Amino acid sequence: MRVGIALDEKGIKYESKEENLFNKSAFLLEMNPMNKKVPVFIHDGKPICESLLVVEYIDEVWHDTAPLLLSDPYQRSQARFGLILLIKRYMVPEGGFEQGKEKRRR
User: Is pTM beyond 0.90 here?
Assistant: First the structure.
């Protein structure tokens, strides 16, 4: 989701492939052998894993288009902190989002 938004914002054409998370393909396991999760962004044949890292990578590689991240290191760190808080607040255990609801604490 984040990666697609970043690519769209940068105006970068890409191919997205769906992955069955209960029956992971050999390709996914080869591209991300450490944690076997999506997303995996493949650029020039090299995989980049973890969506926040992929977004940073996209912003750095395609730096000629509108920036996704703030240029000031402190402001950038504060924006990342806010994003982490939002993710922790609205992510459900299965890895999706609950619309407008805070996840329940167990």
Answer: no
